[in-house]
């Protein structure tokens, strides 16, 4: 009887370590996103149907938001992001870069236009284009990444717009 109890406890502990282990994985190596290193470049479709690359934004502070229209927490953070963006109105040295991982571009375009989400908008269908989810090691969304003017990742898992202190983090990079 005791042996079964120990076995059950071992199973619960192993499952717990597996689940919790995914939340705090070590940062990826190679051509992937690593804090303090250059952000992996990508070139994706923008709202107008053209292409925009991350490297085109070098010289600006980039607040990258990886999201999808089907992700309720993403949409909540996007609403809260409107207040954050107000703090930087007229400041051309800050870019709010939204990369959708929606499958259907029309759904993405429609949501952005109908909800007046201001910023630079790109799509990586299902995160596969440019291997975005893999290269930025994104296990869940929304995912925020803060990139400095030199194009280096400053915060690999940046604070969400709902965290008021992200404004100060962005301002610190503008100095």
Structure description:
The chain has 175 residues and is of the alpha/beta class. It has a single domain (27-173), classed as Glutaredoxin. 34% of the residues lie in helices and 19% in strands. It has five helices and seven strands; from the N terminus they run αβββαβαβαββα. It has helices at residues 2-23, 72-86, 105-114, 132-135, 166-173; strands spanning 43-46, 51-53, 61-67, 94-100, 120-123, 143-147, 153-155. The chain has a seven-stranded mixed β-sheet with strand order 2-1-5-4-3-6-7. Strand 1 (43-46) and strand 2 form a beta hairpin. It is globular and about 40 Å long. 27% of the residues are buried. The model is unreliable at 12-30 (pLDDT under 50).
Secondary-structure blueprint of this entry?
Blueprint (H helix, E strand, L loop, with lengths): L1 H22 L19 E4 L4 E3 L7 E7 L4 H15 L7 E7 L4 H10 L5 E4 L8 H4 L7 E5 L5 E3 L10 H8 L2
Parallel strand pairs: 3-4, 4-5
Antiparallel strand pairs: 1-2, 1-5, 3-6, 6-7
């Amino acid at each position: 009887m005791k042996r079964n109890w120990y076995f059950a406890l071992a199973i619960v502990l192993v499952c717990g370590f597996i689940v919790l282990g995914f939340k705090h994985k070590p940062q990826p190596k190679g051509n992937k996103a690593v804090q303090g290193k250059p952000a992996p470049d990508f070139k994706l479709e923008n709202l107008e149907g053209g292409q925009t690359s991350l490297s085109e934004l070098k010289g600006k502070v980039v607040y990258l938001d990886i999201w999808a229209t089907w992700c309720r927490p993403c949409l909540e953070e996007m609403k809260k992001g409107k207040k954050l963006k107000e703090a930087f109105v007229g400041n051309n040295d800050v870019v709010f870069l939204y990369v959708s991982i929606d499958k259907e571009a029309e759904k993405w375009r429609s949501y952005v236009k109908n909800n007046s989400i201001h910023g630079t908008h790109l799509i990586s269908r299902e995160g596969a284009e440019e291997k975005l989810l893999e290269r930025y090691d994104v296990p869940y969304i929304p995912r925020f990444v803060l990139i400095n003017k030199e194009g280096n990742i400053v915060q690999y898992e940046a604070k969400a717009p709902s965290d008021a202190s992200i404004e100060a983090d962005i301002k610190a990079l503008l100095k």
